[in-house]
Specification:
By secondary structure, the protein is an alpha+beta fold. The chain has a 5-stranded antiparallel beta sheet with strand order 9-6-10-13-14, with helices on both faces. Strands 1, 2, 3 and 4 form a 4-stranded antiparallel beta sheet that branches. It contains 6 helices and 14 strands. The chain has one domain: Alpha-Beta Complex (Creatine Amidinohydrolase).
Length: 272
């Protein structure tokens, strides 16, 4: 696997289809959520929808977080992030997070919604648009990943929110998603063996060359974004409310970058 080569037009096209499928699944399942639906119910519905659509496998299996769990309140052990029996209620925020593989391309996405009206949630969701712009501008300007991470923290603080992506494994706001030609069906802690192998190979290659596939605020992220596809997921919180998006960023060999697709739910929300 060539890690630092920019994604080819074919890989980009396949990734766009995979991401679209993942968002279609999230929107379809979100439309069917009702009071009393559990996180496990939602995750199972996402799994069924994607597998019926003909995916090859999973980078990671679907997650669903309801209520205060959208802000990771009280979630400390790694197992706490898996779907639970927590039931959705009227006016409650939710997050659906899934990463199917289609034609070898990973569509790692996150979708935030609410069952009914919630003024704070709507305001936070709208504020995510500024983070999307900030991240892309930072990559295009050649800033280091760690510097962009810090810029996101400062913007969140100015908006009145706190960083919740710091609670992800390794505190990442993003990670590389290289093509996976033969997805393995076996999963470990929700992630496929193929995904763990891909990330492991990238981590080894990056360690040798001075970069990391895990984008956080640490010393290993003191470099610019390497060419390829990155799944970017800024996650904001306030009290018991959390919002995020996750979508793919394409970084080219010349340092230029673009979001894979601008016709996404959170982009339309911010533009409304």
């Amino acid at each position: 696997m060539t890690i630092t080569t920019a994604a080819s037009p074919d890989v980009i096209a396949r990734a766009r289809r995979s991401q679209r499928l993942a968002y279609d699944a999230a929107l379809a399942v979100a439309a069917e959520l009702r009071p009393g639906t559990s996180e496990r119910d939602a995750a199972a519905a996402l799994t069924t929808w994607c597998e019926r659509a003909g995916i090859d496998g999973w980078f990671h299996r679907p997650f669903a977080w309801f209520g205060e769990r959208t802000a990771f309140v009280g979630m400390r052990a790694p197992t706490a992030f898996f779907p639970t029996a927590r039931k959705l209620e009227r006016g409650m925020p939710f997050i659906l997070d899934l990463a199917p593989i289609l034609d070898g391309a990973v569509g790692d996405i996150g979708y935030s919604g609410c069952l009914g009206e919630h003024a704070l949630h709507a305001r936070m969701l709208n504020d995510l648009g500024a983070h999307r712009t900030l991240i892309l501008d930072g990559v295009r300007a050649g800033h280091t990943l760690a510097a962009i991470y810090a810029d996101v923290d400062r913007l969140a603080a100015r908006q009145g929110w706190v960083n919740r992506h710091c609670r992800y494994p390794l505190g990442v706001i993003a990670h590389r998603v290289d093509p996976i030609a033969r997805p393995h069906k076996t999963t470990v802690a929700g992630f496929s063996v193929s995904a763990l192998r891909s990330l492991g190979q990238a981590a080894i290659a990056g360690h040798r060359a001075g970069w990391s596939p895990f984008w956080n605020g640490g010393a290993r992220s003191q470099h610019t974004a390497t060419p390829g596809l990155w799944a970017v997921e800024p996650h904001l919180g306030f009290g018991g409310v959390g919002v995020k998006f996750e979508e793919l960023l394409v970084v080219h060999a010349d340092g230029q970058a673009a979001w894979l697709d601008d016709d996404l739910p959170h982009v339309r929300t911010a533009a409304a």
